[in-house]
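Onboarding guide, step 5: your first structure request.
Type a short instruction followed by the sequence, for example:

Predict the 3D structure of this protein.
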Amino acid sequence: MNHFKKSEFDFNDKDTVSVIDEFRKAKEMFSDKIDGYYGLALMLYLSEQIDEAYKVLIEMEQKGVKTLDVRDNKKIKDLKKKTQPI
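The system replies with structure tokens like these:
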């Protein structure tokens, strides 16, 4: 089993897969809310699936999913910057 540490988070493959699956479900169930998209993109990023994380953020933009919360917008912008292809 792979085990890695990214930032202050400590995950193993089994935990990460479970959380990613839950965020995928949340994204589908509440497709007009940022939480599922951001959570999924963040977990994909932390599990080093950078391209997939970026695609989730682009999908969120294309579907017009937005928030008025300045902190959420900053987190999304920062994550997009980290995942954007060079």
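Each response can be followed by summary notes, for example: Helices lie at 13-29, 34-46, 50-62, 70-83.
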